[in-house]
Write a structure and sequence with these properties.
globular; single chain; mainly alpha
Amino acid sequence: MACLLIAIISLLYASVGQAGGTAFLSLMAFFGMSLTEMRPTALGLNIVVAAYSTWLFNRNKVVDWTILRPLLFSSMPASLAGGLIVLDGHMYKTLTGLVLLLASAVMIMQRGRAADRVCETPLTAIVSIGAALGLVSGLTGVGGGVFLAPTLITLNWASPKQTVALSPPFILANSTVGFVGTFFTGQFPSPDLALYAISALAGAVAGTIVSLNCLNPAGIRFILVAVLVIAGIQLVLA
């Protein structure tokens, strides 16, 4: 049952350029996985899903590396720093859930903005945003794409379509750094990680195909808001 749910989560999140770390964490909490295994397991699944999506989007030449490079330059060391901080279990879930709900509210308020109207991305600002997102990503262990997407759209630095392609490599980089960081805190993934990873990859393949061929900007925004709200409520109430 867990493998099937992981595949479904991966499909839904990959369709909007996300890896599913937030929902993976909620699912693992539901099945009673220990807190010391949850964060590294979710990050490991993020790496698998985001690696495939990054490869596919980059092959289709839809990743805007001009925006992504300065984001990664500052987010990766900040994510490592955040990953070395271990929060109390209740504080960790509450913080992550509240941030996701805030992100969904921002997305809803920005629903009337034209999808193709994109502003210049000031270098200092984008580096600062990358550092902030990386730190939050490291603290929560969700990879960062779920924070990156509403930020880029709200600041009008990328269209919804562009954001879908930017999120996987951002998630891949920060999840990899965070995954390594968890070992320094004594946290290790579930022994069933390989089995979960196969399920997540299957869902990612289907979800990325949906993203590339089926969704329009309005559909992307709607699904992203929905997964933010659901995951946020789950974590706050957990």
